[in-house]
Amino acid sequence: MRVLAKDILEGKVTGEAEVSGWVHRIRDMGGITFVILRDRSGILQLVFEKKPDLTLESVISVKGTPAANEKAPGGTELRVSGLEVLSKAAPELPFQVNGDVSKTGLESILDNRLLSLRNPKIRSIFNIQATIVEAFAGFLRNQDFTEIKTSKLVSTGTEGGTNLFQVEYFDDKICLAQSPQFYKETLVAAGMERVFEIGQVYRAEKHDTPRHLNEYVSLDVEVGFIESEKDLIELEKGVLAHIFAELERKNKKDLDAWNATVPSADAVAKAPTVPYDECLSIVNAEAAKGKNPGGRIFDINPEAERIICEWSLKENGVDLVFVNQFPRRHRPFYTYPLDLGDGKASSTMSFDAIFRGLEITSGSRRHHDYQAFLEALPRFGLKTEDMGGYLELLKYGCPPHGGFAIGCERLTQKVLGLTSVKEASLFPRDRKRVAP
Ligand code: AMO
């Protein structure tokens, strides 16, 4: 019977068993040889009476009997009676799979993706990510949301024109979607009311930073019949609290591998909502108290994101902050305006979530009134003819609605404390990297 390493370690198998996997480590002790076998469930020590002819990373299948050994990882080993080499690996490996990856450079990890993904600590990043995606979907399904899949080939951008990838489409030029923004709004207006999408989006960011990918997975939500961005913040708190609880429940080993912890549901509930102007005041006041106060901070830039999370950790015991009411000039044209008393509606019903010093989410209530939207267009230098299907969306009956998008890789990065968001993408795309 073929079983997993974990079944043997958990004592589920007592008689002869067969396990299959990769050769993780070989230790020749003269008389006997210890081989550490790795499969999807973990690692298991194999004991060979005679030295087997094996290379690291070869794929093998062995038969044997479990035996207790307190020196073996997990306290049990398998005394091998039969070996089959299913695929022999070349003796020279370009990447040390069983090494300490904290000492390996990011370029080497990404250049050797097939092998680096075999490293248990690196694999655990994607166990975490799988739970994030599953918990995101699970929470929303439970709240009566419908999962949608929309096209990534689009005729126009949604988030601004500068970071669009153009592609040839027969005799035409079109773009890769920056966001499913218009589709998710369309489907709310089409009567679905509550939708979510998990899908790739594309951003032609020219700069190389630890927070930018050119292709990432966007966890998108759109919901009808809301009053303001505050409804969305409450919804996102529910989503995040559920994701963190599921990570605690299912991925303790993966979190431990990175020495990572996640906020409790109580901590998430305590995350403050701070209006944009107040956030800048707090950030500047906190920066002035620091050892090296620099110039005034005028925007929620990466430094401000770090400072506001440190402030919230001190004040509220959680390094998660929702910043709302962004100025209109900072948000896309579809964002619902908010008049804070200047008579010019220069603010918006918008928000960002900042977690452990990094923006992980943007969201807002959207325009839903056709006339009001037409009147707002010139403010953004836009004409009705630029708007295509977006106008139709508003013209034929659209509920007040809004939504948000969480960057899946950024959330994974911050849960585990990874230095770069690229570590949280299986096959990251950046300015120089389109393979593997
Ligand atoms: P925005 O453009 O702010 O909003 O993106 C939402 C979230 O996506 C993540 N993100 C990225 N992750 C990795 N690499 C990038 N280059 C990158 N760019 C963005 C971030 C960010 O918070 N349509 C709106 C959402 C909405 O209002 O529903 C949008 O896409 O975590």
From TrEMBL:
GO CC aspect terms: aminoacyl-tRNA synthetase multienzyme complex; cytosol
PROSITE patterns attached to this UniProt entry: AA_TRNA_LIGASE_II
Residue numbers marked as site, Important for tRNA non-discrimination: 73
Subcellular localization(s) per the UniProt record: Cytoplasm
EC number assigned by the record: 6.1.1.23
Entry GO MF terms: aspartate-tRNA ligase activity; aspartate-tRNA(Asn) ligase activity; ATP binding; RNA binding
HAMAP family named among the record's database cross-references: Asp_tRNA_synth_type2 (MF_02075)
Purpose: Aspartyl-tRNA synthetase with relaxed tRNA specificity since it is able to aspartylate not only its cognate tRNA(Asp) but also tRNA(Asn). Reaction proceeds in two steps: L-aspartate is first activated by ATP to form Asp-AMP and then transferred to the acceptor end of tRNA(Asp/Asn).
Subunit structure: Homodimer.
Annotated family: Belongs to the class-II aminoacyl-tRNA synthetase family. Type 2 subfamily.
Name of the featured protein: Aspartate--tRNA(Asp/Asn) ligase
Protein's gene: aspS
